[in-house]
Amino acid sequence: MKGYNRLEQIMDFLKSHNLVTVDQLVAATNASPATIRRDLIKLDQEGVISRTHGGVTLNRFIPSQPTTLEKAQRSPLEKQAIASAAAALVKAGDAIVLDAGTTMIELARQITHLPLRVITSDLHIALFLSEFKRIEVTIIGGRIDDSSQSCIGDHGRRLLQTIWPDLAFVSCNGWDLEKGITAPTEEKAALKRDLMANARRRILLADSSKYGAWSLFNIAPLASLTDIVTDAHLPDKTREALETLSPQLIIAD
Questions:
Q1: Is the domain of 105 the same as that of 22?
Q2: Domain HTH deoR-type, which positions (predicted)?
Q3: Which residues constitute the domain of residue 45?
Q4: Which residues pair with 176 in a beta bridge?
Q5: β pairing state of 248-252 and 143-145
Q6: Is residue 63 part of a domain?
Q7: Given 92, 177, 207, 231, which is the most exposed site by the fewest CB atoms within 10 A?
Q8: Is 11 part of a structural domain of the chain?
Q9: Mutual angle of helices 102-109 and 76-87, in 10-degree steps
Q10: Quick one: which of 47, 46, 11 has its CA closest to 29?
Q11: Which is more confidently placed, 30 or 63?
Q12: Measured CA distances, 251 to 63, 127, 163, 206 (Å)
């Protein structure tokens, strides 16, 4: 098994167990004890897990900022399904804002047949959509964040504060019923708040693997959204809890 896929498998196992031993991870991944120990050292150094004498536990706080390439390798089928469900919300002539991220990139691929005005912070999305004459693209500008290859900072925030889009699609590092949607830095959280603030519909695109995890900075409570689009792996109990909120919950099959 490739190293990256094994780390993902370890993370998935940790999410469903409070305390995990090396032997359990060996059985779950078919890797050697030495390989598992090296993986755990790496995850510990990144702040993802805590190691104790009894085993390891997952830190629910998420400090790391993976690259766009790393994110693209995570839950690709779920992201495609979420993007397809989100694309169904977009109509010809809409003015939409697209946040940065791999699910947003997938959404951009699925709306190229429509005449649209698109405002985005994501460099990949801006360059891709600029190839389509039916789509008018505005990039918000500002300083480039190297982890997401997107624009952040006050320049982009000022532009976002002056527009009134039909739809705003926002991404996050983690989402939770109690803690809302979160981002790893104050700058990103502030930009995402402005991205949604004036939109007629405020739509979160987040796969189920991010539910129950959070980063340091709050973006907004879930109740401030109009729609949440996620995948079919969201547990039934979580669905029931989310359905008590005001946002429309859209499950992408």
A1: no
A2: 3-58
A3: 3-58
A4: 180
A5: unpaired
A6: no
A7: 92
A8: yes
A9: 50
A10: 11
A11: 30
A12: 28, 29, 29, 11
d(Cα 172, Cα 193) in Å, to the nearest integer?
11
Query: Is residue 154 in some structural domain?
Result: yes
Q: 135: how many CB neighbours lie within 10 A of its CB?
A: 18
Report residue 93 as tokens. 């002539």
Out of 73-87, 204-218, 221-235, pick the least confident: 73-87
Pick from 58, 76, 95: which residue ends a domain?
58
Q: Which burial class, exposed, middle or buried, applies to 39 when counting CB atoms under 10 A from its CB (0-12, 13-18, 19+)?
A: buried
| Per-residue pLDDT band at 147 (split at 50, 70, 90) | confident
Q: Tokens 């990039």 sit at which residue? A: 139
Q: Which residues contact 79 (CB under 8 A, 6 or more apart)?
A: 102, 103, 106, 207
User: Which pLDDT value is given to residue 14?
Assistant: 82
The CATH number given to whatever domain includes residue 45 is 1.10.10.10
What lies within 8 Å, CB to CB, of 57 at 6+ separation is: 14, 18, 19, 20, 49, 50
Task: For residues 10 and 115, state if they share a domain.
Answer: no
Is the domain of 42 the same as that of 144?
no
Query: Any idea what the CATH number is for the domain that residue 119 is in?
Result: 3.40.50.1360
Domain count for the chain:
2
Please give the pLDDT value at position 58.
78
Tens digits of per-residue pLDDT, 153-182?
999 999 999 999 999 999 998 999 999 999
DSSP-H helix ranges across the chain = 3-15, 22-29, 33-45, 68-72, 76-87, 102-109, 123-129, 154-160, 186-197, 236-242
* Pick from 107, 104, 116, 121: nearest CA to 193: 121
